[in-house]
């Protein structure tokens, strides 16, 4: 049965926009007093409400009697929401002036989350992931990438990926898993970084493939994690095994984005330390530049150079990096709105970075736009003017969210 939803004060379908480079608000298509026809979780038509009433007279009507602005559901293409415990002690030390290395020496950092997540059982991790995914969903995020990387051994990495898979069965949100066993070399591994990465390739990834837990790998390229050379070799071999790649790149030092581009990774994420060299490489590639304002807020760092990336011609997506350490807030819209003021990003650029431009980072062909044939993942804000969404700096949340055409 077809359902006509509307009328909406405005619909922003996010169609007809270039995937790369700067955008101006005048380029946004705005359908005034529009509606959407959905059937079996898919968008059938989108147009003026009155014209849809005439064209589909037998539709079931889902009438909206308050002014609302309709957008595609947001796509968060970089999160770490499968974990247990908090790192509140780390945060207290950080805002008191302690450095990253000082916190790590005191038992904090990624290894603290590894220790707590290894102890947690599958049920706990699944429930934690479902709860965070559902919170994201209520805030308009309908598709969520979720990384492992707090296990760092065979049993715990598989436990995390199984938890993500099971969580996907208990939340309406779409969860897309990524193996981040190459988050750091675990402290209890005595071999070299090359040996550890080879262990992932030969022992862990085949099991992940066998259980169909993920088809994505990620690696953290940084002085405190893995070298550019070792990462390049790892990505090449993982992709030969059939995995697609993304990279934690240029967070504290440059070099990772170049590896990502050379490997034809789907995305290079972080980029706070990217120089003009990395910006140019990303702009001249198909690798999505994913900026993570939540990490900048949590660490008290400068934002990634989103404005310069866009001006150079890159495809820029914005993701939350929701994790227990550097980005515990997990509020994608707040982060994007605050960053937009600092980096001078237009409304069109921000909304595209959360929808149509985030989709390629996850190889999504039917999400990020409101278009016939696309999945009916939608959110509606309680306003008659789309500019209010960023004006209230993320405080305005969607009044209604639909996942595959179902109001959730």
TrEMBL record:
Origin species: Chitinophaga ginsengisegetis
Name recorded for this polypeptide: Imidazolonepropionase
UniProt domain Amidohydrolase-related: residue ranges: 69-408
Gene Ontology CC terms, in alphabetical order: cytoplasm
UniProt EC number: 3.5.2.7
Gene3D superfamilies in the cross-refs: Metal-dependent hydrolases, Urease, subunit C, domain 1
Pathway: Amino-acid degradation
Enzyme class label: hydrolase
Transmembrane segments: none
NCBIfam families cross-referenced by the UniProt entry: hutI
Pfam families found in the cross-reference section: Amidohydro_1
